[in-house]
Write a structure and sequence with these properties.
Blueprint lengths: L2 H33 L6 H31 L4 E5 L3 E8 L11 H20 L6 H23 L4 E9 L2 E2 L5 H19 L6
Antiparallel strand pairs: 1-2, 2-3, 3-4
Length: 199
């Protein structure tokens, strides 16, 4: 290769390098833009917070109403559907199915951590599916309802819904527990509805 050919090729290589270097910042900006998260929009806020407040209110009110009613009736249970459903007054020292009974500080700590995780997932969820926001609202309401009982009811959670068949009784539960179960169901449904990423 003579000196003239080297001189001719030099500007071409320099131009190529200039184009490559100028392309890097734009691709970098695009990457950062894709990685940047957006806070939940107004529609998400109007779903999450009112549903959470409504669920928490329903849970606390139902506990108060049923326990007061049973005290007035001087009874520990009132049949709603014979052979299937009755209202009872049971105070649970543990979590679901009596797990970690009497472990007050552990259960409170787990509930607080769960709430932090729920709020964090909501904040960083952006404007995803509405179904996810509904599920998160139910989670938050359920955790707050039972956490309220643990803090202000001597560590005891008030359960009053007793579903049974003959001698077989499902562990008594409350509205907060129901909201948690519904939230799990909605999250499962939303996972099937989530759009698949194109390869």
């Amino acid at each position: 290769m003579n000196s003239r050919q080297r001189i001719r090729q030099a500007p071409i290589m320099t131009e190529f390098e200039r184009e490559e270097s100028s392309a890097r910042p734009s691709s970098g900006r695009a990457f950062l833009k894709r990685q940047a998260f957006a806070l939940p929009d107004l529609a998400a806020q109007l779903i999450f917070w009112p549903l959470m407040a409504a669920g928490l209110t329903l849970d606390l009110w139902s506990k108060w109403a049923v326990f007061n009613w049973l005290r007035q009736e001087h009874s520990n249970s009132v049949s709603i559907i014979n052979g299937f459903l009755q209202l009872v007054a049971i105070e649970n020292k543990g979590a679901a199915f009596g797990i970690a009974a009497g472990q007050y500080h552990l259960l409170v700590a787990v509930s607080v951590i769960a709430l932090i995780v729920i709020f964090a997932v909501f904040v960083f969820s952006g404007s995803r599916q509405k179904l996810v926001h509904i599920a998160l609202a139910f989670f938050a309401a359920g955790v707050c309802g039972n956490l309220y009982d643990r803090i202000f009811n001597n560590g005891l959670v008030r359960d009053f819904i007793d579903v049974y068949y003959r001698q077989y009784h499902w562990p008594a539960f409350n509205v907060a527990d129901s909201l948690l179960c519904v939230g799990v169901g909605l999250m499962i449904i939303s996972s099937f509805r989530a759009p698949k990423r194109s390869s």
